[in-house]
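@here heads up, posting the sequence + SMILES for the adenosine-5'-triphosphate run so it's all in one place. Ping me if the SMILES looks off, I pulled it from an old spreadsheet.
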Amino acid sequence: MSCRTGTLLCWHSERAGGEVLENAIKALRNRHVDIERVLYLVQAGRERAVPAFVERAGIELVEIPLDDPTLHAGIYKQVCSLVLPRLRGLEGSLHINVSPGTPAMHSVWLILHAGGALPDGTKLWSSQLSRETRRPRIDPVDFSITTYLAEIHRFARCEPGLAVYEPQARSAARHVAFDHLARYARVIGAPLLILGERGTGKTRLVETFVATLKERKKVVTVPCGGLDSALVESLLFGHHKGAFTGAAVDRLGLLAEADGGILFLDEVQDLPQAAQRKLVRVFQDRQRRYRPLGSDREKTVDVELVCASNLPVAELRGRLDTDLFDRLSHLVVTVPPLRECREDIKEDWGRVWREIRQREDLPEDAPWSRDLEQALRSHMLRGNLRDLQRLAVLCMAWWSSPDPSPGIREALIQWERFTLTPEHESSAHGEGSRTERIHWFRARLARWAKEQYGTWAAAADALGCDEKTLRQDSIYGKV
Ligand SMILES: Nc1ncnc2c1ncn2[C@@H]1O[C@H](COP(=O)(O)OP(=O)(O)OP(=O)(O)O)[C@@H](O)[C@H]1O
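bot reply: prediction finished. Complex structure tokens:
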């Protein structure tokens, strides 16, 4: 039988030494898995305990700094940042010997596996010496738990070009939102309402995460703001030929089109009142009954309802039919604005960049510099992901090689000059935390001075500061 080739991941065993690794490789070969590459993980500072053959055999030694090898969180964090990146673009299969190391090290492999963080098809193995024969053996670990994280990762791998949020958000606000989303999306038959400012990615979340979590591939998205109120009922519920003037042929309607999937009403507050009332009746019981226009027979569909709105909940209550609001307000998730998720901003920026980047001469990974970091960490980002998209496009337009810094600086100035939120929406004292307001004020002052005195040098002179400070200030905050 031919051998499959693969990569083996294994912690160094303090107790049993290099034998564990050698035995695991042999035992895998007996199972027709030929290990070509080994990532041998050793706690930083313990390298001297690593057997000499590891170096001779060209094994990749990965030193992992750990304050305490019994703490799951520390191990998890280090493995995510030091080991997982090495697995990108892996050829062949991945095998993990979960046996060596502390129990916490052991369980982190299981957690990563259940969370979908490892490449598809990764195999977990448990190695030991057979009690009877004293020969090495290796057994598959059956740990086929799947979590919503695993499902989302799988989705992201299927659609690599599409930017989707990382399910393991770093910020508390996003983490809580995704946790709620995962719980609520799994409730079958209950409408889900997703709130959030413009550009927080609600539509994409529904079409990806929510669809995956609900295990429904089809999502029929209805942008309610653009519907013609005279035709909306026929559009949603369908009609029979001759139901009204102009109904020349039968129309199935979006509800029927969504059968077996999700009907997603985006900006639900813009749905005309009559259609809202009719929807309440459709979703009042599990049978989802409705009557197409001009028909005397009821139809039933199997549809999950998801709605989204960028209005705050109090305002939405005022805009929606009372019964529809009551129906929709059982399961509500608010996607936080980007300014409340600063810890995630670098990843967000990276995803936006990769999705927008089209030219081969631009780097695949988003640029990152002190200027960019400061701007992204202090800008109000009222347009959320769309602000990042605008910055990415500007950076691409001003890109300069081989040193991109001047172009990025210019892009930041242009970015700050125009904001996606109209001026009157921001208060005279800025918005957000004290630090954010101070940045906002400094940015306005710097730009005002530049306009007033003509050049950065003259403006700095007039304000009694250095030019560099003033230029830096100008790219912070929101005008
Ligand atoms: N996780 C993401 N990472 C990067 N870009 C994203 C992500 N999700 C969505 N986008 C992009 O951000 C933009 C805004 O996304 P989306 O339309 O889903 O937001 P929204 O909250 O529905 O906005 P609106 O309320 O204005 O319709 C889209 O152009 C989309 O391509």
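MO: Residues 163-165, 196, 198-204, 310, 348, 351-352, 355, 385-386 surround adenosine-5'-triphosphate (CB under 6 Å).
MO: One more: The CA atoms of residues 28 and 34 lie 7 Å apart.
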